[in-house]
Amino acid sequence: MEYINIFIKSAFIDNMVFTFFFGMCSYLAVSKTVKTATGLGAAVIFVLLITVPVNYLLETYVLKEGALWWLDGEGETYFAKQDLSFLSFIMFIAVIASIVQLVEMLVEKFSPALYGALGIFLPLIAVNCAILGASLFMQQKQFANIGEATVYGLGSGFGWFLAIVLIAAIREKIKYSHIPGPLKGVGMAFILTGLMGLAFLGFLGFEL
Amino acid sequence: MSEEKKSAPLFSKKNMALIKNPLNTINPVTIQVLGICSALAVTVQMDNAIVMSIAVMAVLVIGNVLVSLMRNIIPGRIRIIVQLVIVAFLVICVDQILKAYVYDVSKSLSVFVGLIITNCIIMGRLEAFALGNKPWASILDGVGNGFGYGLVLVVVAFFKEVFGSGTLTIPGLGKLTIVPESFYAMDYMDNGLMLLPPSSLFIVGIYIWVQKARNPELIGE
């Protein structure tokens, strides 16, 4: 039950795009067609599903205050007193960059069409705020075990996927509408996202 | 890097354009659509927006200079990782400084200080400008883009805070009351929507609308 609650909370209530604006750059740039949006969304889910648990382990056993207790011998407390949390930014981003590299190689090998369609945005997942943001929120929320952290990563990724696929579908349709010239394209996408955000506010307080 | 550039004056027309253009015609946030995440999320209060802009500008300028100095020795294949490490190092410094001197703001910015690392403006400028230009031009480019980013943040924060809570929090001056008490006595109410996340999207959308309507040459597609 706890897992389902975490999933719903991270996917709908604290949706990455509508509540925290994570990953807005690629969200706006790749949401012109549903097909590429689905591809990028799936890539984000996959990367989050791996990076959040890995960073959770890193946080619990290396970075947190007192996390290094396992290095101490019997009766010593030297390592347990160290607090390496100031290093978390650089450690998290290193993990993310290497995992993204891996995903990029896999996609290039198994789906060249998707690789061509995503173009520059696949390597840029490394600098997608959604990925680092999820890890930093995971650190802030202090989950009890790795299962909760994994579900959190999955839920956040799913929320992001949902958001980008929805806006891509709307943008495909709205191409044929009559929009004032200066508002066409990015401007309208912003306002649409705002409206979708209002709709998602309806999930507030929802709990199983 | 041509020779005649060396003798150009420090504030030549070309160099000034590096500062001026990002404010309007190539604004990183509204026109190039980069670095939106933090621009939208930290704008509930004016002081957060100002501190965030200064932090981003500092990282951008110093990062630009470092990358520009090292541009000839960074191997092309691993340049993204090198840039990430430089930026992450700078952001750790900024984070520690913020925690030491403006703890309250640092608390309310929460994870968004860390997210400067993945701010697309910074990676974009390092990749597109600093890797191919001299340090001085890179400093100006950093300052210009920093101001372009800050401008949007301050505008969004102004509307959100004035209409959302009737105040304006400016660093050094504290919380100023903008909407007078007599307004509230006449049944004026703060707009609660302005404090919610979607309102920043509306404000930026309208900002883009106004900006493009004033500069019709920006309407592409």
Overview of the structural elements:
The complex is a heterodimer of chains A (208) and B (221). Helices cover 67% and strands 0% of the residues of chain A. Chain A has 208 residues and is mostly helical. Chain A has one domain (2-57, 98-201). Chain B has helices at 13-20, 36-41, 46-69, 79-101, 103-109, 120-128, 135-165, 181-185, 197-214; strands spanning 167-170, 174-177. The model of chain B is unreliable at 1-5 (pLDDT under 50). Chain B has a two-stranded antiparallel sheet. Chain B has one domain (23-215). In chain B, helix 3 (46-69) runs antiparallel to helix 7 (135-165). By secondary structure, chain B is mostly helical. Chain B starts with 12 loop residues before the first helix and ends in a 7-residue tail after the last helix. Chains A and B meet through helix 2, helix 3, helix 5, helix 7 and helix 9 of A and helix 2, helix 4 and helix 9 of B.
Topology:
The complex is a heterodimer of chains A (208) and B (221).
Chain A: H1 2-13, H2 16-20, H3 24-29, H4 34-63, H5 88-110, H6 112-118, H7 129-141, H8 146-174, H9 186-200
Chain B: H1 13-20, H2 36-41, H3 46-69, H4 79-101, H5 103-109, H6 120-128, H7 135-165, E1 167-170, E2 174-177, H8 181-185, H9 197-214
Antiparallel strand pairs in B: 1-2
Give short descriptive properties of this protein.
A: 208 residues, 0% strand, globular, B: 221 residues, mainly alpha, disordered N terminus
Give a short synopsis of this structure.
The complex is a heterodimer of chains A (208) and B (221). Chain A has 208 residues and is an all-alpha fold. Chain A is built from nine helices and no strands.
How large is the share of residues in beta strands of chain A?
under 5%
Structural class of chain A: mainly alpha
> Regarding quaternary structure, how should these chains be classified?
heterodimer
How many DSSP-defined strands of chain A?
A: 0
Main sheet attributes: strand count, strand direction, barrel closure of chain B: 2 strands, antiparallel
> How many E strands of chain B?
2
Task: Give the H and E element order of chain A.
Answer: HHHHHHHHH
- Spans of chain A of at least 5 consecutive residues whose pLDDT stays below 50 are none
Beta-strand content bin of chain B: under 5%
Number of helices of chain A: 9
- Strand order in the largest sheet of chain B: 1-2
